[in-house]
């Protein structure tokens, strides 16, 4: 924080803390890990400004700037940076004709069984085309950004982060033939429970709601995208190699 104050004073940039809604920021800076970045990204998306991630956490896959890259950090205060855009998804739950939950997520929307219950059964439609029925612990609907999160730990594919696509990936499916599928983000995904009383919907690990039979979960690409400050010294494949040891011989 002292470094930010120093650069702010040097370049005559005002610094406001998160939660000060009376101030309109031009840039949101996240100092922490991926969880902190997701919180900061939500603020940046709300105000339609870029977000920059400085990795002071553990994995920090979403945070492209390291704390020792002082020249890059200073550029955040001079405005000398470039941004790329990331697809967001709008998630809505309808019950009895009314919408009871809405959330815009960066990583994923997850539908999963309760801890004490057995596997759940659910149907999925994509643009009114029915997919085969799913049975298992749940399903992940991931964005390209979220493809390297929970989706990857469930053997899902890695999608280049600036692409426009969904990944549908079953969690512990009962049928081994139920493999992840990548779909264009132009359509709408609808999920509804079958033959089970209750499950849970979780978005970006931040917001959740209980869902029941006859509820309809609709997931579509948001009309706006998140602006993320990119590090010109580090490509997506560099991050895959450094953080996930992508392509390395073990």
Describe this structure in words.
By secondary structure, the protein is of the alpha+beta class. It has 2 domains: 2-82 and 230-244, Rossmann fold (3-Layer(aba) Sandwich); 88-222, Tumour Suppressor Smad4. The protein contains 5 helices and 15 strands. The chain has helices at 2-10, 34-47, 70-78, 150-153, 236-244, and strands at 28-32, 51-55, 83-95, 98-105, 108-112, 120-126, 129-130, 134-136, 138-142, 165-171, 181-184, 188-194, 198-203, 207-212, 216-229. Strands 3, 4, 6, 7, 8, 12 and 15 form a 7-stranded antiparallel β-sheet that branches. It is globular. The relative contact order is 0.18. The model has no long low-confidence stretch (mean pLDDT 90).
Largest sheet: 7 strands, antiparallel
Low-confidence stretches: none
- Report how far apart the termini are: 38 Å
Instruction: Write out the CATH superfamily name of the largest domain.
Output: Probable inorganic polyphosphate/atp-NAD kinase, domain 2
Order of helices and strands: HEHEHEEEEEEEHEEEEEEH
Q: Structural class, judged by helices and strands?
A: alpha+beta
The residue fraction in helices comes out at: 10-25%
- Number of DSSP strand runs: 15
Classified by CATH, the class of the largest domain is Mainly Beta
**pLDDT average, as an integer?**
90
Calculate Rg over CA atoms.
20 Å
Count of discrete domains: 2
Name the beta content range. 35-45%
At the fold tier of CATH, the topology name of the largest domain is: Tumour Suppressor Smad4
Number of helices: 5
CATH architecture classification name of the largest domain: Sandwich
Query: Globular, elongated, flat, extended or rod-shaped: what is the shape?
Result: globular
């Amino acid at each position: 924080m002292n470094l930010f104050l120093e650069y702010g004073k040097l370049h005559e940039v005002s610094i406001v803390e998160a939660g000060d809604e009376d101030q309109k920021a031009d840039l949101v800076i996240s100092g922490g890990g991926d969880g902190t970045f997701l919180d900061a990204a939500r603020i940046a998306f709300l105000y339609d400004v870029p977000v920059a991630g400085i990795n002071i956490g553990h994995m920090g896959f979403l945070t492209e700037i390291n704390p020792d890259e002082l020249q890059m950090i200073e550029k955040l205060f001079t405005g000398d940076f470039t941004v790329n855009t990331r697809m967001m998804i709008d998630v809505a739950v309808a019950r009895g004709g009314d919408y009871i939950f809405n959330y815009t997520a960066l990583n994923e929307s997850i539908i999963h069984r309760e801890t004490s219950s057995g596997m759940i059964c659910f149907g999925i439609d994509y643009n009114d085309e029915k997919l085969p029925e799913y049975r298992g612990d749940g399903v992940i609907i991931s964005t390209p950004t979220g493809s390297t999160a929970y989706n990857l730990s469930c053997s899902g594919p890695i999608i280049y982060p600036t692409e426009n696509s969904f990944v549908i990936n079953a969690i512990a499916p009962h049928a081994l033939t139920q493999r992840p599928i990548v779909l264009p983000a132009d359509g709408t995904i609808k999920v509804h429970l079958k033959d089970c009383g209750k499950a849970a919907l979780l978005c970006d690990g931040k917001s959740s709601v209980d869902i029941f039979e006859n509820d309809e979960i609709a997931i579509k690409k948001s009309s706006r995208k998140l602006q993320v400050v990119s590090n010109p010294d580090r490509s997506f494949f560099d991050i895959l190699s450094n953080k996930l040891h992508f392509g390395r011989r073990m």
